[in-house]
Write a structure and sequence with these properties.
about 260 residues, Rossmann fold, seven-stranded mixed sheet, 6 helices, about 30% helix, about 20% strand
């Protein structure tokens, strides 16, 4: 079996590369080099210190969740093309022809895919890993916003078919986390659970057999954009994030989710 992955280059993305390389005959990866914290994100005021603290805690959670679980990449079966962020949609499909002859296509953490490439991937029923529970939370940093909105029952990941709309493709299933050591590990661990579930379903050959369910857009709670994530929002988040330790999850909160 051959797999093509479109992803980024942080610890969690490399972990997914390692996992997939261990469960397929050949892995093709198009990997974007994304700066962890853009200099334009960190403003030169007192609140930017809090923003930096937030991102440092995200990185620490990522390290705690993934560093001890690194797989050894089978380099002989993995072919990686590294590109800069924003270059994905400039790729000429004919120049990556070998990357477009796979059995399974997976998208996780890449930039927004457009043009001929998204048309091709939709035809191939490419699978997108969205860290957030669609259709309730779509856009960027969805698990952050679920916590911010006092909706931790919607912290999770959605495995869905890729579509032209952001996080709007038909849903295969959701995964949720039970890791509640702290808010940051709670949200970050959803990626690990999503990766484990996809690899399991690749191994037992059930991934491509799941019947996708269209999203009910009427259930959308928030569609978040990068510009919504401000110093003021982060300050508010830190004032209220401790509520998660006292939150009691109720089974009926998930009655309309397609859980893995």
């Amino acid at each position: 079996m051959k797999i093509t992955l479109f992803t980024s280059n942080s610890l969690r993305h490399n972990y997914l590369i390692n996992m997939l390389s261990a469960c397929c005959e050949k892995l093709f990866v198009i990997q974007e080099d994304v700066t962890k914290i853009s200099k334009t994100t960190l403003k030169k005021d007192s609140n930017s210190i809090l923003m930096k603290k937030y991102f440092n805690e995200v990185m620490l959670a990522q390290k705690n969740i993934f560093k001890k679980k690194i797989y050894k990449v089978k380099k002989e079966n993995t072919n990686i093309i590294s590109i800069q962020e924003g270059e994905l949609n400039k790729l000429c499909l004919s120049k990556i022809d070998n990357f477009l002859k796979s059995d399974i296509y997976i998208v996780y953490g890449s930039s927004y895919i457009k043009g001929d490439l998204v048309e091709f991937l939709i035809k191939k029923k490419a699978i997108n890993i969205h860290l957030g529970v669609s259709p309730y939370y779509r856009g960027t940093a969805c698990n952050f916003w679920a916590v911010y909105d006092n909706n931790p029952q919607y912290v999770g990941a959605t495995i869905h078919l890729l579509s032209k709309g952001l996080d709007s493709g038909a849903i295969l299933y959701h995964v949720l986390s039970n890791n509640r050591n702290n808010v940051f590990e709670y949200t970050m661990s959803t990626a690990l659970i999503a990766f484990n579930s996809i690899v399991e379903k690749i191994k037992n050959q059930s991934l491509l057999k799941i019947e996708a369910e269209p999203q009910d857009r009427s259930k959308e709670i928030r569609y978040s954009k990068n510009k919504d994530f401000t110093d003021e929002i982060v300050m508010d988040f830190y004032k209220n994030k401790n509520f998660l330790n006292q939150f009691e999850f109720k089974k009926n909160e998930y009655k309309d989710l397609f859980l893995q």
